[in-house]
């Protein structure tokens, strides 16, 4: 609430204090938010872009150290089996990094590893029906396994999760080429 000024003025320092405390107590939502802060509040030289937003966090001037801290937070959040954290970490392994939703900036965090991404996406889909997870699993079934019918089923599940343009596009391709039960 402090971060968004709900019931008070916006106070990112106070918000970060609470995120830090909640993350230390194992709250996956706070761990996810802190991971994103560690990545997005620094420029490529490790300079704080918004010093007031990170004044209370123990951050490093080294971008590499902040990326390590962010990856550690993403992994901690996923270890709680939080569906969003599982899908986010799966996506990090799939792509090799994290893309900031607001700016589109990509942060390289590790070497791509589809084998590590698969079980994380599967857990996310099983726990909560994550649209990202269903999309990835559908694409894997379609492209690597060759099970087109299963891919269509997974794309439909992804589309049913919400406003998912990627899943709708995947279904359109299936209809266009007559794949599965499309």
Task: Summarize the model shown.
The chain is mainly α and 182 residues long. The chain contains 9 helices and 2 strands, in the order αααααββαααα.
What does this structure look like?
By secondary structure, this protein is mostly helical. The protein has 2 domains: 1-111, Alpha Horseshoe (Serine Threonine Protein Phosphatase 5, Tetratricopeptide repeat); 129-182, no CATH class. The chain has helices at 12-24, 28-40, 51-54, 63-79, 83-95, 114-128, 131-145, 148-160, 165-177, and strands spanning 97-99, 106-108. Strands 1-2 form a two-stranded antiparallel ribbon. Helix 5 runs antiparallel to helix 6 and helix 8 (148-160) packs antiparallel against helix 9 (165-177). It is elongated. The protein starts with 11 loop residues before the first helix and ends in a 5-residue tail after the last helix. The model is unreliable at 43-48 and 50-61 (pLDDT under 50).
List keywords for this structure.
182 residues, mainly alpha, Serine Threonine Protein Phosphatase 5, Tetratricopeptide repeat, 2 domains, 2 strands, elongated
Give the CA-based shape: elongated
Number of E-type strands: 2
So what's the CATH class of the largest domain?
Mainly Alpha
- Unreliable spans are 43-48, 50-61
Strand content: under 5%
Strand order of the largest sheet: 1-2
Helix-strand string: HHHHHEEHHHH
Give the proportion of residues in helices: 55-70%
